[in-house]
Amino acid sequence: MATMLVQPPIPAFHANIPPMLRTTNMVITHTSSSTTHQKTRSSRFGECPPGFRPIFTVRVAEQTSGLVADETPTQIKTALYQALEGINRGIFGVPSAKKFEIEGLVKQLESQNPTPDPTLNLEKVGGCWKLVYSTITILGSRRTKLGLRDFISLGDFYQNIEIAKGKAVNVIEFDVRGLNLFNGRLTIVASFKKSSKSRVDINYDSSTITPIQLMNVFRKNYDILLGIFNPDGWLEITYVDDTMRIGRDDKGNIFILERSEENSI
C-alpha cells in the first residue's frame, strides 16, 4: 500500500498573513487607551475577554532589500565634477578626505570603462584634452621658487594627442602679474608608443617657454619646472569615453582630463 504523506495544517495565524509580510520587520509600539470595554470584543483570531484593554499595537514595516543599483558613468561623473569644484585641479594640494573621495569616484568610473583596450582604439584618445585634476602637486619651496605664491598664477593645462605622429603636446599656461601683465606658456613635446592594450611608454622630446620674458622668470628654476611636468615614463589609460579620460602613471599619479573643443595648442 502506498504511503501518503500528510502535511499538518497551517495555523490560521500564519495562513492569513500575506507572504510578503512574513519577511518584514515587526515594530511594536506602546499605545494608550482610555476606552473601557463593556462587552466582549470580536477579533479575527477569536473573542476578546471582557474588560480587555489594548496596551500594545503592532505596526508592520516593510523591510527594504538594501540593494542599490550601480550608478551610471554619467551620474558618477556629475559627482566627480562636484568633488573637483574649488580645488584648482589639485595642483596646490587637497585635504586627504577630499583626495580619498575623488579617488573613490575615479575607481567607480574605471570599473565601468567603456573602452577597455584604449590603445587599440586610439581614435578615442586622439585630439585635445584639458586637465581638470591631477595628484601632481607644487608645494612648499618649489611653489615659492617658481613664484606661484606671488606674481605668477597657473592657467589652463592642455594636452593634444597626435595619433599619426605618435606625439603628445602638453601646454601649461601662466599669467604673470607685474608692471606689464603678460601671458605665457610652457610647451612640452613627448613621443609615445603602445606597450600594451591600455598602456603607452612616453619619452620627453623637447620643451619651450614663450614669451622670452617668461623664460627669464623661470630660467633659474627651469629644472624644477621640468621636474614637475616631465612626462617620461609610462601611462595607463584606465578610462576613456567621448568626454573624459583618466590615466595613472608609473609615479602613482592620477590624471583626469575632459575633451576640449578649444584646441588652443
Automatic annotation (TrEMBL):
Domain Plastid lipid-associated protein/fibrillin conserved: 75-257
Compartments reported by the entry: Plastid
Pfam families referenced in this protein's UniProt entry, alphabetically: PAP_fibrillin
Record bears the keyword Transit peptide: yes
UniProt cross-references to PANTHER family, sorted A to Z: PLASTID-LIPID-ASSOCIATED PROTEIN 4, CHLOROPLASTIC-RELATED
Family named by the database record: Belongs to the PAP/fibrillin family.
Protein name stated in the entry: Plastid lipid-associated protein/fibrillin conserved domain-containing protein
Source species of the chain: Rubus argutus (Southern blackberry)
Highest classification ranks of the organism: Eukaryota, Viridiplantae, Streptophyta, Embryophyta, Tracheophyta
